Structure formats: C-alpha cells, structure tokens
Amino acid sequence: MIRYQEIAHSLELGLAAGGDDSRAIPSEHELCERYGASRTTIRAALKQLQDQGLIERRQGKGTFYRPRHITKHLGSIVDFHSEARMAGRVPKTRVLALATREATPAEFTLFGADIARDGIVDLLRLRSLDDQPAVLQRSRLGAGVLGSVKPDELMDASLYRYLAKCRGIHVATVEETLEPLAAESEDAGHLGIPSGTAIFRSQRIARDAVGGVIELSDNLIRGDIYRFTIRRQVGSVTP
Predict the structure, then answer these.
(1) Distances (CA, A) of 34 to 5, 93, 113, 173
(2) pTM of the model
(3) b/e string for 207-238 if b means 16 or more Cβ within 10 A?
(4) Are 100 and 143 in contact (CB under 8 A)?
(5) By C-alpha distance, which of 52, 64, 50 is closest to 15?
(6) 116-125, pLDDT tens digit by residue?
(7) Residue 32 and residue 42 in contact, taking contact as beta carbons nearer than 8 Å
(8) What is the pLDDT of residue 66?
(9) Three-class SS string for the chain?
(10) What is the 3-state secondary structure (H, E, C) of 73-130?
(11) pLDDT tens-digit map of 45-89
C-alpha cells in the first residue's frame, strides 16, 4: 500500500471510531507532524478521503468529517432539515403530491369525526441529502388541520414547524415503529435504488398535548444513509 493510502486508511478508521457527528479534522500541518509525512503526501491522503465522500472542505472554516450514515434517535422529533444540517449535510424537500379526499371509516376512528369529516390530505414528499434521495414520506392529516396550504409552502420546510407557526398546532408526542422492508419498484425509483433493495420503514403517529392524532406518516428510509439508535436512562441501583 502506498504511503498516502496508508494514511488515508488510518484517518478513516480514526474518524469512524469517533462517532457519526460531523466535526473538523486536524490541519495539514498537524497531520504532517502526526504521521511524519510531507505536505504532498498528506494532501494526497485527504484527496482520497474527499473523493470517497468522507470529508468536505468548507470555505473559510476548514476540512470536516462527513459520516457515511446519519444517526437518528428513535422517537426524536427533531425535524429533517435541522437533523441533516447538524450532520453537515445539505437537506432538500420536494412535494411530489398533495391531494384531499374523503376519510375512510378507519380514519374517522383514528382522527376523530370532527377532523375526518372535512376530509384527509395525502402528502407525498421526497427528502434528499446533498441531492441524494434519502427518505420517501407519505403523510396523512386532516384537511382542516393542514389548511389551504400550497405545495410551495412545504418545499424545503418542516411540516411540524409549518403547523406550529401557521396553524397554531403543536406536536407533543411521537410514536414510531421501525421495520425492515424490500423497496417496491415505484418507491425504489423515487429513492434512486434498485427494486428489492433493503430499506427501513418507519410508521409514525404524531399527537397533540391531549392525545389527538395530528399526523400519520409512512416513511421509507435508505439504510445506506441512516442508522437508528435508542437512548435509555438507567436509574441508580440500590444494593
């Protein structure tokens, strides 16, 4: 293995061991001293990591580690765009479909008659990271809850922030179920992956402070971009 490749491999292992947070890496001068290598060799190693998409140079800020995965905490209500930016990614949201229809009997039960009688909105959005499709999200909300929103108002925006700011509706709790799934042809096309690729499916129920259902969502998530964690608080053990 050529020297710059050895250094690139060492850096990759060290960065991965530090977790999935985006963070600054040492300067070229520091790396030269650490590895006892010339600046030319260090630059070649960094270029290899950059070509692999593992680091990125930010104008006026330095060079940063770009994790292969975004770590998402189950049950978190941090919105997609904030979560992506914390990971050093550039998020985008496109509205693929927005339509209102009559509620089904099951939806009358889930949402309640007061909401369901005005109809249900089906919202289909594609969320991307650095222009790479990452999440295909199907949401259902009461037409009276969402209001007469236009697709452009939900482009590159958080649905929950829109509801809070424009409708005075606040999400208080989120229940989420995660399962593996093989992507079907149409969904795979949206996500830019081959049909049959293993993905995550997240089914989520968002409720207000009194337990009323605000949104039901079915999210198809690329497993090569996301991974999931659970945090538990462990109490003190009495001997």
Answers:
(1) 15, 41, 67, 48
(2) 0.72
(3) eeeeebbbbbbebbbbbebbebeeeeeeeeee
(4) yes
(5) 64
(6) 999 999 999 9
(7) yes
(8) 72
(9) CCHHHHHHHHHHHHHHHCCCCCCECCCHHHHHHHHCCCHHHHHHHHHHHHHCCCEEEECCCEEEECCCCEEEECCCCCCHHHHHHHCCCCEEEEEEEEEEECCCHHHHHHHCHHHHCCCEEEEEEEEEECCEEEEEEEEEEEHHHHCCCCHHHHCCCCHHHHHHHHHCCCCCEEEEEEEEEECCHHHHHHHCCCCCCEEEEEEEEEECCCCCEEEEEEEEEECCCEEEECCCCCCCCCC
(10) ECCCCCCHHHHHHHCCCCEEEEEEEEEEECCCHHHHHHHCHHHHCCCEEEEEEEEEEC
(11) 888 888 877 777 777 778 877 766 676 766 667 788 887 887 777
Residue type, 118: D
Q: Identify the residue whose tokens are 């890496």.
A: 25
Structure tokens at 45: 């190693």
